[in-house]
Design goal:
The chain is mostly helical. It has ten helices and no strands.
Amino acid sequence: MPFILVTVLIDMISIGLMVPVLPHLVGQFTHSNDQQTLAFLAVTLAFGSANFVSSPILGALSDRFGRRPVLLLGFCGLALSFFVTAVATALWMLVAVRLFSGSMQSNISIANAYVADISPPGERARRYGLMGAMFGIGFILGPVIGGILGDVDVRLPFVVAGCMALVNWCYGFFVLPESLPRERRRAFDWRRANPVAALKGLAALKGVGTLVWVIAMASLAQFMLHMSWVLYTKFKFGWGPG
């Protein structure tokens, strides 16, 4: 269990690093507040759309080949996307790299599956609580560090985040054991990899459909704040990343 907790912590710190600086980086390629807002929407939408399509596919691949290879793929893609973002010279590059990042990123859901693989039923709630704690700690430390580094150079947090993602890849490659034994793996099925079909399947389960909507609305409210807060403080008060 400590292996996956360290992995999630490093992953969330690296992702959190970009929260206070990505809107400011987008602003370097726009000429007004309205343009910056729309451009940031495009960058954010690119990641979300790609992630919506790819997450069930990556989940199905992890059922077929194991959790560890898919996690390593995600860390590698995350590192590459951060490094390319750090040297981006045009808005289209940011949109393209966020599309790529979204298509490669399903680390949290795969980590949750990893915990389910290694946990007896009586321990799952406690261990998922520990996962949530690592998620929270990472998302506290990441934006703080990102803001401090962003005051030095708005691109510096992406370099540091890329290095952390590489550290996570090395940790996963050399330390993290596989959680899904071969006898429990199943063949890849495109029907299970379809995001719309997956949502319909969840909604059809008794009592789960309502829970899915509650989680979706809570996540929507949370991410609306995350995505708009930096722009709001910049436009309203002239705040920088830090």
